[in-house]
Design goal:
α6 runs parallel beside α8 and α10 packs antiparallel against α11. By secondary structure, this protein is an all-alpha fold. Helices cover about 75% and strands about 0% of the residues.
Length: about 280
């Protein structure tokens, strides 16, 4: 009994079980059994590793730029139809529903990069989106108030919706009970004041989850989040953005990255539309 206790105490110190030593000694003369056991352990470790390691979605930087340019062109056409023709061009209106999910995917992809939090990507995006959103606010306010709806300030333009998405992903990346609680509160209250409401945020968050781990379940979440935009859009054309951006991920395109151009273009094109509206319409 004393010897057994001594062996157990030694196992606690060394981390080697005395029973495993006896099992190993029983297989000492049987090399095939030892090799089989080692192979089984290695296979088990390989399976567990494959289960734990996420498979992020990969899209070339040039392809991301191509997605942004296509979305930019469709956005201009959609806003021309909205502010100059009172949405009387149905085909343009339907194509315009694809714009937000495309921009949302590009934003989500950059936020889902493994080193995004460490490199301070969230902070830089918040700074740019805040500046561009505030710069666009006067034109957005006038165009909506005079020509679209009576609620000129509500909802806030899409750049503030993207700002909300960046803030939420930052909190979720930080982790912890406080950050999760703050993210839930920010989603509930912030989603009520931005363009596309909670549905736009859900679409972007679904894309973010998918870009971090391209699993079938997360693809379904992205699909459902984008489908929820039907409540705002009145149709399901936003879903067309998903196969478009996935197909773009399989095509390599070489385009230079123009970061500030896209932020500056949004308020600039609204100012131009406001001038055209005052002058000719």
């Amino acid at each position: 009994m004393t010897k057994a206790r001594a062996s157990v105490a030694q196992a606690n110190v060394t981390g080697v079980s005395p029973w495993s030593e006896s099992a190993a000694s029983s297989d000492a003369g049987v090399p095939g059994a030892t090799l089989y056991r080692r192979g089984a352990v290695r296979r088990l470790i390989a399976v567990e590793t494959q289960r734990r390691v996420p498979r992020p979605w990969v899209t070339a930087d040039g392809s991301l730029e191509a997605i942004k340019w296509v979305a930019l062109i469709l956005m201009v056409l959609d806003h021309v139809n909205k502010y100059l023709y009172a949405e009387k061009l149905p085909v343009i209106f339907q194509c315009g529903r694809i714009v937000m999910p495309m921009f949302g995917f590009v934003l989500a992809y950059n936020l889902a990069r493994p080193d995004a939090l460490a490199r301070g990507v969230h902070g830089r995006m918040m700074y740019r989106l805040t500046l561009a959103g505030l710069a666009a606010f006067p034109m957005f306010f006038i165009l909506n108030g005079m020509y679209v709806t009576a609620n000129a300030w509500w909802p806030l333009n899409i750049l503030f919706m993207l700002l909300l998405v960046v803030s939420l992903t930052y909190l979720l990346d930080r982790g912890g009970a406080k950050c999760y609680a703050l993210a839930a509160t920010l989603f509930l209250f912030g989603g009520a004041f931005v363009e596309y409401l909670w549905m736009g945020v859900l679409s972007c968050l679904g894309a973010w989850l998918f870009c971090r781990d391209a699993s079938t379940g997360r693809l379904l979440l992205w699909f459902l989040g984008t489908l929820s935009l039907t409540v705002v859009n009145g149709n399901a054309w936003a879903l067309a953005a998903i196969p478009m951006v996935l197909l773009a991920g399989r095509i390599s395109v070489r385009l230079p990255r123009l970061t500030w151009v896209f932020y500056a273009f949004y308020p600039a094109h609204l100012l131009l539309l406001l001038g055209v509206r005052w002058e000719w319409f």
